[in-house]
């Protein structure tokens, strides 16, 4: 299981700037990588972040919590998520909100991609 570490908010990034003002298909902005988790932050601000992830089969994020709500939308594939002891199977097009300060984790059932939106107070 991988751990997610956030980038420095408001750090200039040409690759992110190139996305602005364009029509995007989010699942095409992050590629699968064999045996690992890949990520691409597309928005990084003090107010919050949007990060895209791809997970190879059987990869995941270990249990953790964050001090703010996190919205996860599955862009491709299937995964299993755990939130405060509850287990959910999720597939393409589904969204879940991880509440602030509540333990959560996820694991790939198949290769899958997701969008993570975190809004800070």
Can you give a write-up of this model?
The chain has 121 residues and is mainly β. The protein has one domain: Jelly Rolls. The protein contains one helix and nine strands; from the N terminus they run αβββββββββ. A five-stranded antiparallel beta sheet has the order 1-2-9-4-7, with no helix packed on it. A four-stranded antiparallel beta sheet has the order 3-8-5-6, with no helix packed on it.
**Basic shape:** globular
Which regions have little confidence, pLDDT < 50, spanning 5+ residues? 4-10
The helix content is: under 10%
Q: What is the chain-wise order of helices and strands?
A: HEEEEEEEEE
* Strands side by side in the biggest sheet: 1-2-9-4-7
Number of domains: 1
Supply the key terms.
single chain; five-stranded antiparallel β-sheet; 121 residues; 1 helix; Jelly Rolls; four-stranded antiparallel β-sheet; mainly beta; globular
Summarize this entry quickly.
By secondary structure, the chain is mainly β. It has one helix at about 15, and strands at about 35-45, 50-55, 60-65, 70-75, 80-85, 85-90, 95-100, 105-110, 110-120. Strand 5 (about 80-85) and strand 6 (about 85-90) form a beta hairpin.
Topology summary:
Blueprint: H1 14-17, E1 37-45, E2 48-55, E3 60-64, E4 70-76, E5 78-83, E6 86-91, E7 95-98, E8 104-108, E9 112-119
Antiparallel strand pairs: 1-2, 2-9, 3-8, 4-7, 4-9, 5-6, 5-8
